[in-house]
Design goal:
single chain; alpha/beta; TIM Barrel; 12 helices; binds pyridoxine-5'-phosphate
């Protein structure tokens, strides 16, 4: 199981004081030393944490860079210029604290309409990224219609949103909900693999709830930020990443 470490929260801390530190690039280097196979960052439209220059510097590191971004013309331009190894397309709302849900890949119709989906703005953005050799992943909820639409869009990967599962796992006595949400992720992963999509997952994963997600067959990479950064306050980034690597094996 590969681990992608999301370093947005380091930039959030820096921006809270509008200072030049802590430096997400330096932290990314420590994460790589701790065993991270990739670095993930989200360049938001409002630039509330990661800045354009961070992405340029992160790209120069000898590691795989996964750029999370909204499917907009501005972000497309930036991605085509910086050429990360992977782009993960996510929905973005100005007011949200973090990415709250997956993309809705088939918004207009209840019935799957492949032609409409492929010709959508999203479909065109995916094609332009892939034409430049960038691997495209779509962040979606574990829902069979979304998985199907991701395949129609010829995405390379989907990233299954584990937020609902994770939230339930934080609350005592929610065992049934945890089981149900975990099952949804497992079923979606299986469906995706059967139709030729590769599968990652992320959101809300911590040192405990990650194990069941890591055990899902075919899961390739888990993208984790908050719990690792929180743990690093006690043990440092390198060890916090190494501990997560151990947890996902
Ligand atoms: N994957 C995606 C697409 C995300 O938007 C986020 C949050 O930035 C994560 C993974 C990581 O979530 P967390 O910080 O809760 O581990």
């Amino acid at each position: 199981m590969k681990l992608g470490v999301n370093i947005d929260h380091i930039a959030t801390l820096r921006e809270a004081r509008q200072e030049s530190f802590p430096n997400p690039v330096a932290v990314a280097k420590e994460a790589i030393a701790g065993g991270a196979e990739g670095i993930v960052c989200h360049l938001r439209e409002d630039r509330r944490h990661i800045q354009d220059d961070d992405v340029i510097r992160l790209r120069r590191l000898p590691t795989r860079l996964d750029l999370e971004m909204a499917a907009t013309e501005e972000m497309l331009r930036i991605a085509l210029k910086i050429k990360p190894d992977m782009v993960t397309l996510v929905p973005e709302k100005r007011q949200e604290i973090t990415t709250e849900g997956g993309l809705n890949l088939n918004p207009k119709s209840e019935k799957l309409n492949p032609k409409q989906i492929r010709n959508s703005k999203l479909g065109k953005i995916i094609n332009k990224l892939q034409d430049k050799g960038i691997i495209v992943s779509l962040f979606i909820d574990p829902d069979h219609k979304q998985v199907e639409a991701a395949a129609v869009l010829t995405a390379d990967f989907i990233e299954l949103h584990t937020g609902r599962y994770a939230r339930a796992s934080y609350i005592k006595g929610k065992t049934l909900t945890v089981k149900k949400e975990l099952e949804k992720v497992g079923v979606a992963a299986q469906q995706a693999r059967l139709i030729g999509l590769r599968v990652n997952a992320g959101h809300g994963l911590d040192y405990h709830n990650v194990k069941a997600i890591a055990a899902i067959p075919g899961m390739e990479e888990l993208n984790i930020g908050f719990s690792i950064i929180a743990r690093s306050l006690f043990v440092g980034i390198k060890k916090a990443v190494a501990e997560m690597k151990e947890a996902v094996q």
